[in-house]
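Have a close read of this protein, sequence plus C-alpha cells, and explain what the C-alpha cells say about the fold. Thanks in advance:
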Amino acid sequence: MDGIDNPLWCDGCGVEITCEPLAVGKHVYCCQDCAQGLPCRCGERMEFEDERRGSTLTTISAATLYSE
C-alpha cells in the first residue's frame, strides 16, 4: 500500500502517478512525454477514467455483455 501512504507526483505535469512511474535520474514522471518536457494529457485521461468508474457503464455485469 505504498502508493496510498506515499503517493508519487509527476515531476513534469504534477499529476498523481497511479501507474508504473518512469524514473529518470532522481525524477519520476507519469509518461515519456513528461520525461522529455513535452505536454502530456495524463491528467485529463485519469480524470476521464475516474468519471467512467462512477458511470453505469462500468457496473454492467460480464454476463450481460456476453449474453448474445
